[in-house]
Design brief:
Blueprint: E1 2-4, E2 10-12, E3 59-64, E4 68-73, E5 82-87, E6 96-102, E7 105-107, E8 110-113, E9 117-123, E10 132-133
Parallel strand pairs: 5-8, 6-9
Antiparallel strand pairs: 1-2, 3-9, 4-5, 4-10, 6-7
């Protein structure tokens, strides 16, 4: 490629474009966004976290603040793809824990973390997944909350 300036001189140029994208959605820690603090009545209740579609190599994260057990599932591959996070004051303190999505499973399917731990789900499959609080029978309406 060449650029010609106003004096009709041409200069060869090279254009190199590097693109790296990392996208992590961090969960909220406000009272209204905590698992188990869903408001509303019955079927209108929204899950505390819902990743939306996570493409290959994509990720989603959520920080668990309160002690309790939270179920989650992939809305595309349920009922086969389900998991559980147990938040316990007795758990080893760690800033972050990771769950892989591979072979249409959460790996590990069950983890125990301390309060204020960020859990990061990473999609290692070649197809799209989701991470939604609840279980398939709850329809993502916050089932399995604290």
């Amino acid at each position: 490629m060449e650029i010609v300036n106003s004096r009709r001189h041409s200069y060869p140029i090279s254009i190199v474009v590097f693109s790296v994208m990392t996208l992590i959605f961090a969960g909220c820690s406000t009272d209204s966004a905590e698992p188990g603090n869903n408001t509303g009545n019955g079927s209108n209740t929204q899950p505390a976290f819902d990743s939306g579609q996570i493409n290959q190599s994509g990720s989603f994260s959520y920080t668990f603040e309160e002690v309790g057990t939270v179920e989650y599932y992939c809305s595309i591959h349920s009922p086969d793809m389900q998991g559980q996070v147990t938040v316990s004051s007795d758990a080893e303190v760690s800033e972050r824990d990771t769950v892989l999505m591979e072979n249409t499973q959460f790996n590990p399917a069950q983890i125990t973390v301390a309060p204020s731990t960020e859990v990061v789900w990473i999609n290692r499959d070649s197809f799209t997944h989701t991470v939604t609080q609840g279980n398939p029978s709850s329809g993502g309406n916050g089932g399995g909350g604290y």
